[in-house]
Design goal:
This protein is of the alpha+beta class. It is 16% helix and 28% strand.
């Protein structure tokens, strides 16, 4: 949000503003997922596991490379905050900022979730989205954003002067600590910016502030992914429910989410292998 200007515009202000934008990261050379192969594999899926994420809480789940997983709306409109880690190395985790720079503010089918430096490789590819009909609304809102960071107790303390422990940041910390045996302090280091699954968000047209509105998700809707590497996932059922009013609340209606994990027929992914980490030399000019 920009302050009221304190300086007069220069004579060439109009010309400076009229400069056309360019895309920061053209993706013409970005390696593309084989969506045809993934689509064929989807027709053979056999469910092998599921995890229920309780309202205002988080759960951790594992997905082997070459498998699929879905985040499913079950009982009512509910958004979820998703973290992904390399199942063998927590330091390799989802990099929402770079994913946003490559694919835009909101993700959809064919987009990929990229991992942090120095690995910089696809962790998961979105293979099906039952909310793809939504697109962008008149307010500029869309679903599945990589804008917001996750609701957290530090911002709550800053803005409201009180502690709230069932926010997504804290939920993910507790779940990761329980799964790995890390202390709460150790686990917090690995919890990172999220994919806001089912959340409907954008930037206001006047002040360009981050906004949220009631999610269009309904029971039966799902967002599906293909695991490009062995994954450890963490999903928090946000205490804001559908996030139509507030996102850290004990009063908003909240519902569970379900994570379903599927194995495809092996022969349909014959020859497929996990992407290698970035081949950059890491010399950084020295």
């Amino acid at each position: 949000m920009k302050p009221t200007p304190q300086h007069n515009a220069p004579e060439d202000a109009k010309a400076r503003k009229a400069v056309k934008p360019v895309i920061c990261y053209p993706v013409d050379t970005l390696p593309l997922p084989d969506m045809a192969a993934y689509t064929s594999a989807r027709e053979t899926l056999v469910q092998i596991d599921e995890v229920i994420v309780r309202p205002r809480d988080a759960s951790v789940f594992k997905v082997p490379a070459g498998h699929f997983f879905r985040i499913v709306s079950t009982e009512g409109p509910q958004v979820g905050d998703l973290n992904l880690w390399n199942a063998h190395d927590l330091s390799e985790r989802f990099y929402s900022g770079k994913t946003r720079a490559l694919h835009g503010t909101h993700l959809g089918t064919g987009d990929r979730m990229w991992s942090s430096f120095p690995h910089m490789r696809p962790m998961a590819t979105i293979t099906c989205d039952t909310l793809d009909w939504y697109g962008f609304d008149e307010f500029g809102g869309g679903v599945h954003d990589v804008i917001g960071t996750r609701c957290d107790p530090y911002t709550g303390r800053l803005l409201q002067g009180k502690d709230y422990h069932n926010c997504c940041h804290s939920n993910l910390i507790r779940a990761l600590a329980e799964e790995t045996g890390l202390t709460t302090a150790e686990a917090e280091v690995y919890v990172h910016d999220v994919l806001n699954v089912f959340m409907c968000t954008g930037f206001t047209l006047d002040t360009h502030q981050y906004f949220m509105k009631a999610s269009p998700v309904r029971p039966g809707d799902f967002l599906e992914f293909f695991a490009e590497i062995d994954l450890l996932g963490g999903l928090s059922a946000c205490p804001g429910g559908d996030c139509g009013a507030e996102h850290s609340s004990d009063t908003a209606p909240c519902y569970p989410l379900r994570v379903e994990i599927f194995r495809p027929a092996e022969e349909l992914l014959a020859g497929w292998s996990s992407p290698e980490p970035s081949s950059y030399s890491r010399t950084h000019g020295r």
